[in-house]
Amino acid sequence: MVNLADVARQAHVSQMTVSRVINHPNLVSDEVRDLVNQAIKAVGYQPNRIAKALVNQQNYVIQFIVLEDIATVEPNYAILLLEIAEVLNQKGYTLEISTILEPNSHVDGLIVSGWRDSDLERLSAINVPMVLYGQAPTWYDLPYVDVNNRMGTSLATTHLIEAGYKKVIYIGMTMALPFVREREQGYLETMAKHHLVSRTYDVSNHSHDAEKLIQNIIAHLPKNTGIVCATDRIALGVVRALKAQSQIPENYGVVGFDGVFIDQITSPKLTTIKQPFRQLANTLVSNLLNQLHHSELKTELIQPRLVKRDSTRQV
Amino acid sequence: MVNLADVARQAHVSQMTVSRVINHPNLVSDEVRDLVNQAIKAVGYQPNRIAKALVNQQNYVIQFIVLEDIATVEPNYAILLLEIAEVLNQKGYTLEISTILEPNSHVDGLIVSGWRDSDLERLSAINVPMVLYGQAPTWYDLPYVDVNNRMGTSLATTHLIEAGYKKVIYIGMTMALPFVREREQGYLETMAKHHLVSRTYDVSNHSHDAEKLIQNIIAHLPKNTGIVCATDRIALGVVRALKAQSQIPENYGVVGFDGVFIDQITSPKLTTIKQPFRQLANTLVSNLLNQLHHSELKTELIQPRLVKRDSTRQV
């Protein structure tokens, strides 16, 4: 059994330093932390969770609750989940997964995803440190972490305008969720800023619906139109409808949103707004751990980035 | 705080019966179990895990280890993970997720996915009840649960033959993994059984590679050919290459494999071999729990089913 002493020997530091890195990483320099963490890895040391819990009165367990219906789950979750697991594992925490809103009594904190507005009342009543994945109404005072959805569609809209598409339309979703409103808002604001006329359509978040919409409106859609899509899934249907006439990116430009999996399987490859899942995972975890240490409530929006591919003109 | 007595009152049974349902569900009738479980749900009772652990010397924690690179993770995992979480939650177990092969000392058992042959040596050395997701070489004596891959491609091949496609080819994957070999084998065996000439191609598991392959061989591909694809992702590329000429399903029939997410977003909709993830989750969990109770090693292959859609002729 590898112990603290082995790590200390490997890192050429005292056992107390190793203990400090494990239990109070914020109190040591980056240099020492890296050195000790490398040694921990090298000798294969596993901090004893129960011993840690006794020292810190923590269990080192974070629960991730997915309230979304499994049937509707998108690949986004797999990525976010595994990123969170990796971040927590590195910090000596364990990640538990649950599909029901009943936090186990031994968890130190919750990350809640796939919630609806109707869940927020119940969530605010739970007396455990918590961070939501996804932008929540501010009156609940629940800290959340999300991608900056408004900035994302703003980047998409600006890109299409700069690429010279004369008209720019938006295809959004028929769902009354904050991120849906935010994504639409980012388009509307950017159009207004450029003194351009907005035009929005709504579909369900299915590629076949988006495909049908384009087939229905294509006769009234002038050439040289840019299409901002609320999701890659919608963009996939749009691309499919337009590709039959090989009109991408010359006559029509298409930008999606999410940048997970679907953007890899469209043809032509999709220009999209990429959600930074690694950064989202890091921020969700550090937000929660901050709460554990200082009871700090903080809400953060992470900047997405535009990935230019073949569904829009090069600028 | 809701307790055992509340559940007993709600179910009109004794507290001992409730305790038996929670701790030894196998010893009570289905009827009593359902009754008590409904009462547990109705009053919102949470069995005290620590109390349970003391009685049974179990921690009621199962760890799911994903050894696959996060970047290559497919939507399949999100589904399987959440299904397993749900099954375990219902049984009073907690699911932990980890991306590294270091089982926590407090877990009762491991479900390991995304492993490679080179991991099996290390896995066999771990002295914790374990079940692998994915067919493993039998000489390691590690129990696994998988979909019956061979049966899947056999169903696909038979369907194309019965739909009257004269020639049936197979597009497999350039990966030396058991499930890859099994899927190819299912095609080869079925062709031999029907005294038909086999023809296999290999691509990487990316739709763009499959698309390119079809574009390269289409000149030599006679009309009335059926194409068995090792994955939906490959099938997606095949469909895209063939759709340009609107030749599906009249001249070419295409069958995929997996039935998660991608099959929903292709056009035309994909005939595919659907992996029964709910059943896989249930079997992985019950296999592991059987080991906990009787040290039984058991390997199971779950039957997939053919879902007929628009990429093959109706028979």
Fold and architecture overview:
Two copies of one chain form a homodimer. By secondary structure, chain A is of the alpha/beta class. The first copy, chain A, has three domains: 4-47, 434 Repressor (Amino-terminal Domain) (Orthogonal Bundle), CATH 1.10.260.40; 61-146 and 277-302, Response regulator (Rossmann fold); 149-275, Rossmann fold. Chain A contains twelve helices and twelve strands. Chain A has helices at 4-11, 15-23, 30-43, 49-56, 75-90, 117-125, 149-162, 178-193, 207-217, 232-243, 262-265, 277-294, and strands at residues 61-66, 94-98, 109-113, 130-133, 144-147, 167-173, 200-203, 225-229, 252-258, 271-274, 300-302, 305-307. In chain A, the strands form two sheets. In chain A, strands 2-1-3-4-5-11 form a six-stranded parallel sheet, with helices on one face. The relative contact order of chain A is 0.12. Chain A binds chain B through residues 44, 46, 48-50, 64, 66, 70, 73-75, 77-79, 81-83, 85-86, 89, 94-100, 102, 104-106, 206-208, 211, 233, 236, 240, 261-262, 264-265, 267, and chain B through 44, 46, 48-50, 64, 66, 70, 73-75, 77-79, 81-83, 85-86, 89, 94-100, 102, 104-106, 206-208, 211, 233, 236, 240, 261-262, 264-265, 267. β2 of chain A pairs antiparallel with β2 (94-98) of chain B, so a sheet runs across the interface.
